[in-house]
Amino acid sequence: MSEPIEGRLHPVTPLRRSWVVLLGLGTYVYQQHDLVSVGTTGTKDKIDVPLWAACITVALAVTVVVGVFATAWRYSHYRLDGDALGYRSGLLFKVRRHCELRHVQSVDIVRPFLGRLIGVCTLRVVMSGTTMTLSYLTLNQARALKARILAEDTAEETLYRVKTSDLIVSLLLDLGTNISSLVLAATGLVPFFLSGEPLALSTLIAFAPKVWRLTGKRLFVWSGWSVTRTAEGSYRTDYGLFDAQQYTYRDTRIASIELHQPLLWRRFDWVQVKVGVAGASTPGVLAPVCPRSIAEKLVLHLLGPNAVAHLDDPVPAPRAAWKATPFYKALGYRLNEGYFTAWNGLFLRNLTTVCPAARIQTVTVDQGPWQRRLGLATVRADMAGGARVSAAHRTDSEAEDLGARLYAASMRHPARVTVPNPARPYRGAVSWTEGTTVAS
Question: Which among 7, 98, 141, 318 would be 20 to 30 A from 412, CA to CA?
């Protein structure tokens, strides 16, 4: 049996946590500068404080705040023993956290810019619905804990590295995102154009963070992106220009893979690869931009060769779907060999989503009022964590047949042995659950 790994967080931790309190105290004191005069005498309407007293007060405040956090740091302790990771912390309010390693979804090492300068990092242990964060550790401590938690071998294979030139060009050619940024910026300029007052430009401040997230921030966050396959079969992404970060995907937790292709990327045959993970609310980025051949290689690694074959030859939407959407030719699906793939997307962005049928939790046939009038319906397959794959605007009979086939394919999983009831005519939405067909 392996020896337990235990210890305290890095000694810089109390300094990192105390500066926020000190900054708040300093801001408060500065706001009261009209009431206090330091180093002067005879000031009207102000309290005169000698310089030596002010220095002693500041030193005492810093000592007390840092001392409190340092004492709390001495009581913090982590221990990885066997199949469990424990962490205790707190001085007045003690906290004890315990997690079983079998529940861990990913273990990531985050290296903020300032942390890299002094050689410390954050270890983030992600579980379904919660995250345990150990800040700060030395890089060697974090790597040792990560290797033990994931039972990693040292052998690794780099599958792909994103070129900086490709990343910059892809961001400039992402028409949908750039249009959204321009709309936000234009909305912030409306008050200025209506009033003509330079002060009205301050409304741009409210929209600046969103525009920054859509444009420049992605360049800094996605710089140096690489995808690495570890020895035990997990897939790790490393990225970040200033704040170096990692995210690890376990192949057993992957529920779906999405291939996004904006309009202007089609000339270069580029796609963005996202991964839906069981327990995660939104898909994570596996590759911000890569050639389709690389994307197919990633799908091959994550889901197998049959999933790659599913990325072509969709069953097109019926002709009647043109009344529901002018982009009906972009819709399609494919179901065989244990995989379900759906094609969706509008003019600016195409989306292809593939998922193993055995990981589908529920199947729903949904029919809105307009679809009912046109004789169409949408089949939705839901996975753990909220991921969804939809075959939109199919005919009534086709949707009913596809829903029954999807449910049967999902029940072939060894843990599911219930045989679904035969499909029957429906109104509104039909949901296949464990052995029943329910109409709502």
Answer: 318
